[in-house]
Amino acid sequence: MVERPDILLEFDAVDYSYPLSEMPAIQNLSLQLTAGQKTALIGQNGCGKSTLFLLADGLCRANRGVIKSRGLPLRHDRVALNQWRQRVGLVFQDPEQQLVAPTVAADVSYGLCNLELPEAEIAQRVEQVLHQFGLSELAMRPLHQLSLGQKKRVSLAGVMALRPELLLLDEPTAYLDPIQTRQFLAALTQIEAEGTTLLIATHDLDFVYRWADWLLVMDQGRLLLEGTPEQVFSRPDLLELGLGLPLLKQIWDSLPADLRQGQSPPRTLEQLRLAIRP
Amino acid sequence: MNALDTLSYTNRLRHLPPWQKLLFGAGSLLLALGSHPPVQLAIAGWLSFWTVHYAGVPAHLYRRVLLGIMAFLATSLPVLILNLADHLPADAVWGIPLANWQLYLSHRGLAQASEIFCRSLASTACLLFIAFTIPLIELSLLFARLGCPAILVELLLLAYRFIFLLTDTVQRLLLAQTARGGYRTRQLTLKSASLLIRGLLQRTVERYQQLTLGVRARGFNHQFRFWQPQLYRYSQRHMTEILAGWLGLLTGELLTRIYG
Ligand SMILES: Nc1ncnc2c1ncn2[C@@H]1O[C@H](COP(=O)(O)OP(=O)(O)O)[C@@H](O)[C@H]1O
Ligand SMILES: [Mg+2]
Q1: Where is the chain membrane-spanning (chain B) (predicted)?
Q2: Which residues of A are less than 8 Å from B161 in CB distance?
Q3: What confidence tens digit (pLDDT) does each residue in B32-68 have?
Q4: For chain A, which residues make up each domain, given as ranges?
């Protein structure tokens, strides 16, 4: 067995079908996530993004193939799973799905209590993470009184309290308004700064184009292609999937060739402005 | 239910430790149960003052809830104080003949009624103070510390979380049905209601399955354990007022017993 300390998650020829369903949800899927690399996962609804996350967190068991982290395979006994889930955090698309406690602080403490940490450490970590995500004011609020954006932040805080090295986010900005989205993305920037590697499934191509170092494109349970955003969005076969293109990419492609000549495509508005300055 | 829940988290006595508020409410309740009407009225006034003035519960809301409960209790009062006899006794204040019988209200009945009224008013004010100022969650955690079995408290907390998930599901389904004309006629209403119940069952099972995934993802250990920060500030000023108030009420009660 080769240890690969920089590969935080690896799928090797994984198949998965839901019980009682004809179509496999994941087919012969192989991928590698490198530590420190911002990776985005895109694909149409139903292509298997959420299923991939469930597999990666050990919540479903692959029918075939191996899932590894740092070269070590995922084992499905209780102790091994709990250790795995401490290192690989999962934030569901719908926050209701993972909020269990009656109040914000209690919910954030839930994963820590399950680790049976000493109370002083739990208290210290809960307070720190509440502060980090701007939730200190809401600590004693019951969850059903929060807005969706706040619930999202609570579910993120509850996972980050465990200090995972890899964080899987399933459509984190779905249903959020622009302000809530901005707040959520700001929280992500902080998480990256602390050294947690992110894998984000999303439909927001503008965000992907600006943010990601590496892109995975799924279709019907398979990994269709992967590469840097620039490589992926230049592929003609991507258009057939009907995912569309990032706005900046479209603008850039529609500029006259002499303006673009010799420059790499801009990934932010600022870069675009600099690139076309006369 | 929702207004009460919200207020219990946003009231101005939020920072007082729950035990201090429970002590005040429960202590005053005991006093109310063992004292005479004048003292009971004083207790009702004092506790209402705390709820409306100190805790900042809107007066109109408080009045509505208090009157609602008192009106509900009042419906059972006639049975308790009206008597039926074949002749009008000497201490009757009022009576009407009913066939061969007399339905009458006696002095004793009247005194009894006012006693019951005062006692209900005082104890309602005490219970409302507890309900408006202590969130149910903190109340149940307090019960846990007072020796209530942990499993009961956990169940209570899970039920509390689930009630809001359930009402949320009902509201969504209802809205969807109403928007599409599901309750236009009585016949449709019956049909929609049965659909609602079936939909509710199905969605609840789905939600339960999803929540199970979420709970497992967070390292479920066959036990629900949480930690709560203690952000309360004990207030000596409030405690002094409570003790002084109780002392005054006890003195009043003694005086009514001696001279009353
Ligand atoms: N609980 C389930 N039971 C059976 N089939 C499911 C279940 N959840 C998802 N699927 C199917 O698996 C496929 C992948 O779904 P999913 O992973 O949710 O896709 P995505 O997250 O990309 O939208 C879809 O065809 C979907 O219908
Ligand atoms: Mg999904």
Answers
A1: 65-85, 116-137, 143-163
A2: 100-102, 143-144
A3: 999 999 999 999 999 999 999 999 999 999 999 999 8
A4: 1-87+164-237, 99-163, 246-278
